[in-house]
Amino acid sequence: MNKAAIITFSLAVLCHTNPVQGAELAGNAPFQFKYDASLSSLPQEVAEKVPGAHGGFAVDNKTGEVFFGLKGAGIIWMSNDLKEKRVLPVTEPMILEGNFHNTTILYRGDGQRFLALPDNEKHRVYIVSDEGKLSSILHSPMDLNDYYGGGGAFNPTDTEYADGRLYVADGYSAGNYISIADPWSGSWTDDYFGGKTSKALEYGLFGTAHGITLEPHTRRLAIADRANSRIQDVDFHGTFLENVNLPAGSLPCDVDFHQGFVLVGCLRGPQGYTSAPCYVLDKDGNLISEVNPKKDFELELFTHIHNAAWKPVLDDKGRVEKLYALATAWNPGGFAVMEVVR
After folding, report:
1. For 276, which DSSP code?
2. Contacts for 230-238 with beta carbons within 8 Å, 24 or more apart?
3. Measured between alpha carbons, how far is 320 from 316 in angstroms, rounded to an integer?
4. CATH architecture group of domain 7-341
5. Who's near 266: CB < 8 A, 6+ residues apart?
6. In whole angstroms, how far apart are CA 301 and each of 9, 33, 130, 333?
7. Which of 131, 171, 294, 318 has the highest Cβ tally under 10 A?
8. Are 178 and 189 in contact (CB under 8 A)?
């Protein structure tokens, strides 16, 4: 989101994007969505784990592959076309037990691919290979500041990788700091930013720093400040740059970017009373489309959306052939694939 002013969306604008319940298509062109039931399934051996799902998706924009960490199941791999899915052969017990809250892809300098998996229940971040082998663990950054040094909880909810450093959002703690680590040595740097606020007009601090995402073109970090229903953009040092307010009570969990367009998965609907939407914003933060899986496609599990991600399907030259949105539901868990119909 590359905009200097603070934008607040009105419910009147949102109502314009709401389609008829049960409609085949939902949202506004050029981002109209169609539910794809044929792709919205997971391997049978992990189906019983889905109701407890918290995690999110890591989409490799080089290959089109998708990784999805799921508590009790491990790591699910999906092919570029989403037709093939399998569970990585993880043998490390703590990986299987982890309550993965999101998933991030990291490429090491030698080209090897790894995943970062924040575990808010066990208070750590796992770095694993793309074959599911444990590489290192980041525990609480005890020496970072007085909060952690005094025994403050470390409950990480998301990570992002930029310029060789791993940014860790501690969204479920009283601290709400963004701590910075070297994932390859498994050690923390001395840098951090953020902190807790309950005030909607305090910027650079967070009510719940639930999600953190790199905007690849502007090189900003977008923080989904869930409790304050807003997205804050900061630089790599945590300096506040700008803010976009979402409807009060919508509780955005995370954001994702595709060619400047922003996908926002929300835990609740406007005012917190309706089933949860995914919003699509343009690069200036304007709402241009919306899809509500429960209302639009009668997906009863999708009262709450915990994560949503763009999924481009790439051809053999790396060009985008199709575009999907992936979504997970929380309480109970669910998984859905929605195609962008153009």
Report:
1. P
2. 230/200, 231/1, 231/255, 231/262, 231/264, 232/203, 232/204, 232/206, 233/1, 234/193, 234/204, 236/162, 236/163, 236/165, 236/167, 237/191, 237/193, 238/178, 238/192, 238/193, 238/194, 238/204
3. 10
4. 6 Propeller (2.120)
5. 246, 250, 251, 252, 253, 276, 277, 278, 279, 305
6. 26, 18, 29, 7
7. 171
8. no
Amino acid at 236: F
328 token code pair: 């997970």
Instruction: Summarize pLDDT for 146-162 with one digit per residue, the tens.
Output: 999 999 999 999 999 99
For 87-107, write each residue's pLDDT tens digit. 998 878 888 888 999 999 999
What are the pLDDT digits (tens) for 192-250? 999 999 888 899 999 999 999 999 999 999 999 999 999 999 999 999 999 999 999 99
Of 10, 5, 20, 116, nearest to 69 by C-alpha is 116
User: Buried b / exposed e across 99-118, counting CB within 10 Å, b at 16+?
Assistant: bbbbbbbbeeeeeebbbbbb
pLDDT at res. 23: 63
Distance CA(32)–CA(128), nearest Å, equals 36
